[in-house]
Amino acid sequence: MKIVIVSGFLGSGKTTSVIKLGKRLQKNGLSVSVIVNDIADVGVDGQFISRKGLESKELPKGCICCTQKYALTASIAMVHVQQNPDILLIEPSGVAFPARIKEQVQKLDHVSMGPVIGLIDGSKFEDLMQHSEDAITKQIENADFVLLNKKDMLSTYQLSEFETAITEINPDATLHSLSLKLDDGSFTNFADSLARNLKDDSYISGMNTAITNTNETSDQDSDILDPEFNHFNVNSYAHSYPINEFSDQDQATQMALDLIESIKKSILELNPRFMGHLKMILQTDSIALKVSVTSYRDQPEIDSLSIEGNEDSKMTVFAAVTDVARDNLAEIIQSAVSAELPEWN
Ligand SMILES: Nc1nc2c(ncn2[C@@H]2O[C@H](COP(=O)(O)OP(=O)(O)OP(=O)(O)O)[C@@H](O)[C@H]2O)c(=O)[nH]1
Ligand SMILES: [Mg+2]
Questions:
Q1: Bridge partners (DSSP) listed for residue 317
Q2: Domain range holding 104?
């Protein structure tokens, strides 16, 4: 079983990549499982990935590079015993440093380490460098492949400026600029070439020294073992709510959009330049959808999901953003839900 880490700041496109990459690896004859980590108490992405047809295990309640590192090793061992896929894709939380995860993986038997893929959200690159330069730099340094994503939101000038900055930070990584949304074939080509490399182990020689030198990373990164330490100053809150059936898809979609807009508006009042991820997944017997906002600039994105039937009707609302206290996030989400869904008053 070989492990591929798909990392990157909140909302950069990790889950979108994991789904596309997982399916592409399967097309190339590799069996795939997924472990997905969220810092809040309840996860969203595990449900989403499973609904998109990949075997997935969710690890919420903290970051797998520090507070949840033992839960990670236990989960990897369980996937190995129960499924033993060719490839295990790991999506860490958006605040994780992949070098720490790689260190844990290297202590395990029967598991080998594949490449680290680091997503950078081009639409937030400047804001993030201003806000958390050290942490973003470390995420880039920790990657073997950097995917500069959301190219559809960038001018040609910005694209070339960001490519230069990323290459300066990590000249050893292979950089691909692409848009997971436009799907122009760049990601498929990347995934197919990765599948070939994973089959013949050729990526190993290209592994980045910032990752392979574990002693160096231990010394440099020992601070992030402290659960209170938070390089991006991100706090999070998530909660699941049982819900009643909606009259139709339009009514559910409108409610979900209104809810996310209302949460976004309240967060903007506390931090007009917030970055992170507000997301919700809503599922009933006849409706399933996900809504997402990743920064103060974003309009909500809606994704319809396959309906599986016989589901508990529920909605999970998740917020992880910069520079807003957890209590504020909890209050904002609870009052927005009460306003949109009167049964929660
Ligand atoms: N415009 C645009 N949006 C994108 C692109 N790729 C992903 N997105 C959107 O960005 C949002 C976040 O994507 P996710 O894949 O959920 O990001 P993530 O990194 O898994 O987020 P967290 O797990 O919460 O940290 C979703 O609404 C995606 O549809 C892209 O290339 N362009
Ligand atoms: Mg995700």
A1: 239, 280
A2: 2-225
CATH value at residue 340? 3.30.1220
Q: Whose CA is nearest to atom 21 of ligand 1?
A: 11
The residue behind tokens 């810092």 is 39
State if residue 277 touches ligand 1 by the CB under 6 angstroms criterion. Answer: yes
Domain end position, chosen among 205, 225, 245: 225
Q: Which residues contact 204 (CB under 8 A, 6 or more apart)?
A: none
Q: Are residues 265 and 297 in the same domain?
A: yes
Residue 85: which CATH number?
3.40.50.300
- The first and second tokens of residue 152, run together, are 């559809």
Say how many Å lie between the CA of residue 91 and the centre of ligand 2: 7
Q: What is the pTM of this model?
A: 0.92
Tell me the CA–centroid distance for residue 10 and ligand 1, in Å: 9
pLDDT < 50 positions in the chain: 204-228
Both 82 and 126 in a single domain? Answer: yes
CA-12 nearest atom, ligand 1: 19
Strand 275-283 with 314-322, pairing: antiparallel
Cα 234 to middle of ligand 1, angstroms: 17
- Split into its structural domains, the chain has a count of 2
Quick: pLDDT tens for 40-96.
888 889 888 988 889 999 988 888 888 888 889 999 999 999 999 999 999 999 999
CA-nearest residue, atom 12 of ligand 1: 11
Phi/psi for 314 (5° steps) reads -155, 165
**284 and 153 share one domain:** no
